[in-house]
Amino acid sequence: MASQDPALLRRLLRAKDRMDAASEEDWPVERLANVSGVSDAHFARSFKEAFGVPPHRYLLTRRIERAKALLRDSDTPIIEIAFQTGWNSLGTFGRVFRDVTGESPSELRAREQASAYQLDQIPHCFVSAAYRPDLKIAVSEKRRREAGDRTDTE
Amino acid sequence: MSEGIGVVGLYVHDQDEALDFYVGKLGFQIHTDARNGNYRWLTVKHPNQPSFELGLFLPQEPVLDAATAHTMREMVAKGAMPPLVLVVDDCRAAYDKLRAKGVEFIQEPIARFGGVDANFRDPSGNAWKMIEARS
């Protein structure tokens, strides 16, 4: 792993923080690069090197994380949650949500709201971060579940 | 009470900058500022917690080897260090005051779970959650 300049990393972190603070907004690369004070091409490459995922996949994980929290902790209609977390259509939201988490927004809501949580002793952002979808794991999870399903039917 | 935690340290990018932030902006006080060559043992304390020192340390040689020191600087700048929590009486008032002093907030105060919390970073990248205790 090549080493990166800490001063650059600190500025890349600022772009990541801005996405965290307003993940429902549009974050074209130019806007993020501007926050970090680097060129567009340099930004995308450096961000991925620093944080392991391209900036837009990171943004996606934050949107899904926030949608999951809203599904779990509120009774807000799913279409409202889709708009609040940055999607322009319910269809796209539902499709991407299922791709990432392996279940639909309504399935996740039903399951999460049925379980009891005792997380109120942990500051919210840490709980939230712990529930952030890991896209790499989501894919393997999906495979594991599919493998499990096959075993069940044998 | 004589037993307890005495010092917990943070890694910072620059100790002068950190001192200006923790003392000049957050209102902490210097506890110890001792130099030995290019090594500087720098700790600050919260005015209400005189026996608890927060160390502001530079990842540097020869305490760490050069590559490890650089890695630690990278980790701090990427915001990868562990959570820090500052408890305040009035989160919104503290937010207004600190923001006016140039503190970099990454989350505005939000009321939830019976409390109010906001997030800021120190100049190095260490993230603090500022929490108004539940009443």
Description:
The complex is a heterodimer of chains A (154) and B (135). Chain A has 154 residues and is mostly helical. Chain A contains 9 helices and no strands. In chain A, helix 1 crosses helix 2, helix 2 packs across helix 3 and helix 4 crosses helix 7. In chain A, 26% of the residues are buried. The model of chain A has no long low-confidence stretch (mean pLDDT 85). With 135 residues, chain B is an alpha/beta fold. In chain B, strands 1-4-3-2 form a 4-stranded mixed sheet. A 4-stranded mixed sheet of chain B has the order 5-8-7-6. At the A-B interface, helix 1 and helix 8 of A face helix 2, strand 6 and strand 7 of B.
List the helices and strands and how they pair.
The complex is a heterodimer of chains A (154) and B (135).
Chain A: H1 6-21, H2 29-36, H3 40-51, H4 55-73, H5 78-84, H6 90-101, H7 105-114, H8 124-130, H9 135-153
Helix pairs in contact in A: 1-2, 2-3, 4-7
Chain B: E1 7-11, H1 15-25, E2 29-36, E3 39-45, E4 53-57, H2 66-77, E5 84-88, H3 91-100, E6 104-112, E7 115-121, E8 127-132
Parallel strand pairs in B: 1-4, 5-8
Antiparallel strand pairs in B: 2-3, 3-4, 6-7, 7-8
Quick structural overview:
Chain A has 154 residues and is an all-alpha fold. Chain A is built from nine helices and no strands.
Keywords:
heterodimer, A: 154 residues, mainly alpha, 71% helix, elongated, B: 135 residues, alpha/beta, 4-stranded mixed β-sheet, globular
Report mean pLDDT of chain B, rounded to a whole number. Answer: 95
Class inferred from helices and paired strands of chain B: alpha/beta
How would you spell out the order of helices and strands of chain A? Answer: HHHHHHHHH
Helix content of chain A: over 70%
Tell me which protein chains meet in the greatest interface and how many residues each side has: A-B, 20 and 24 residues
| Strand composition percent of chain A | under 5%
Uncertain runs of chain B = none
Name the helicity range of chain B.
10-25%
SSE string of chain B: EHEEEHEHEEE
What is the CA-based Rg of chain A, rounded? Answer: 17 Å
* Largest β-sheet summary of chain B: 4 strands, mixed
- Going across the biggest sheet of chain B, name each strand in turn: 1-4-3-2
> How many β-strand runs of chain B?
8
Taken from the alpha-carbon principal axes, the silhouette of chain B is: globular
- How does the major sheet of chain A shape up? none
